[in-house]
Amino acid sequence: MPVFISWNCVILSIFGVYGVYALWDKPWFSKAMHCWIGWPNHHVTMDMYWYYLIELGFYWSTMFMITVDHKRKDSTEMTIHHLITISLLLFSWCNNFIRFGALVLVVHDAADSLLAAAKMSKYCEKERLTECIYYVFMVVWVSTRLIIFPYVLLYSTDFEIFQVDEPMITLVRQCWQYKIFNVLLHMLLILHFFWTYIIMKAAYLQIKQGEIKDIRSDSEEGNSEGGEKIEDEINRNSDTNNGYISQNNVK
Fold it and tell me: pTM for the complete prediction?
């Protein structure tokens, strides 16, 4: 598991930096409406091509990892999240919504890379560093997932797209592809609220009790002995997922 976490840390950090680097000089990075202006005649640059394919491969790999990871209370939500993400990547690729899809990826990678760094510091038994990175992660998570994602990106798919007076974009707004794409994006937002609750509860327990306890680590099985064994194993490994870190006191 430490090897897998370290690999995740490196990959997600690269994704986060490269995403911003590739989009920095793009006009649609600062104004999402440009994702729709001139559609579908949007040339896919080589950097976007590789960014998309590598991200898609990464999400497929993590999707398979769920099947061998410990069974958690939010395993269903995790599976749904990965299926939605993969579907969005495929939908945006097939319909040339790559500009908008790239923005969604950058917004998500920002918090994921910080969480991966917090996991690595936990494995290195740097408790204070883990807490500092985790709280920075919380700020970035709320900023990207609950502010930028709904108020910038979803606002663009819900309202700005209707402000573009072009024949092709007017046509696509009436197609089922756009409607499904938009529904999947809103489903992501619902999952963001779910995991935000877990993140905030972790911070509350840390402040109140001096440790962050993994409220997701219980097995979904009814056997309490099996559940305790799973929880003990998770506590030893300090395993994490989606903004939650199980943290034990170090004597």
Answer: 0.78
